[in-house]
Amino acid sequence: MKGIILAGGTGSRLRPLTGPLSKQLLPVYDKPMIYYPLSVLMLAGIRDILVISSPQHSGLFRGLLGDGSRLGLRIDYAEQDSPNGIAEAFLIGADHIQDEDVALILGDNVFHGPGFSQLLQSAVAEHEGCTLFGYPVTDPGRYGVGEVDAAGRLVSLEEKPLRPRSNLAITGLYLYDSEVVSIAKNIAPSDRGELEITDVNRVYLEQGRARLSRLGRGFAWLDMGTHESLLQAGQYVQVLEQRQGERIACVEEVALRMGFITREHCLRLGRSMAGTGYGDYLLDVASRFPAPAG
To answer: What range(s) does the Nucleotidyl transferase domain occupy (predicted)?
Structure first.
């Protein structure tokens, strides 16, 4: 499965923080925002990733992530000239996807919860058609909303409904088969001229090939589109990291635990940031990681 991180847009709701700087490069406590969606794709076992950003910010992402080899990944880049809807990512990324399944994640989303890696890997292994992830919220009218029947089957999808049929918001993580490219090419733009992801998802639903995986109690999904939500996400990460002594979305640690890089490579990465809390954490993680047998 290929991966796409959509990190475009203007970040207008976060001005003056944004402008010359992409929203997805802002700090969320101790690391750049894009580390959080990147770590999700990595936890799913995905190593071939396309980062889509605005033209003025593309060089900044390249400077941060490079070609991905330091994390055992392959990272490529593409540009979205203007924010024309989430589904445009499949048109921009068509050459990246080719005939493979693809996971799309929004660059301003944080996912965290017990057993998340296992949930992701199971979803990837069992994936057919379209897999969405639903999360219960108190204000579903702000989101795309999924309705399920008594058996847990997805039966309807609505975009920001005035009278939501459920409280299950569709999060910014989506799994698709390769047909998503042709489906995105054939949907009509919305009144705002955007290619809506909900319209893509409805096609799969009408074909009987869409399912919803619920992220339930004990799980956190955060969308960092405003100053308030950005601050809340940083505080959430800070509290958990300081209480538990483990870092959320530490991409070097994820790469090590997923087998993308070796213990020795992780030690080198830690030494390159020696004297910082982040670097010292990496050194500690790598030093305690089991050495290869033999």
So the answer is: 2-236
What whole-number distance in Å separates Cα of residue 191 and Cα of residue 83? Answer: 14
Tokens, residue 114: 């017990």
Per-residue pLDDT of the chain (294 residues; tens, 9 = 90+): 999 999 976 556 555 555 667 788 888 999 999 999 999 999 999 999 999 998 888 899 999 999 999 999 999 999 998 888 999 999 999 999 999 999 999 999 999 998 899 999 999 998 899 999 999 999 999 899 999 998 889 999 999 999 999 999 999 999 999 999 999 999 998 878 789 999 999 999 999 999 999 998 889 998 877 788 888 888 999 999 999 999 999 999 999 999 999 999 999 999 999 889 999 999 999 999 987 765
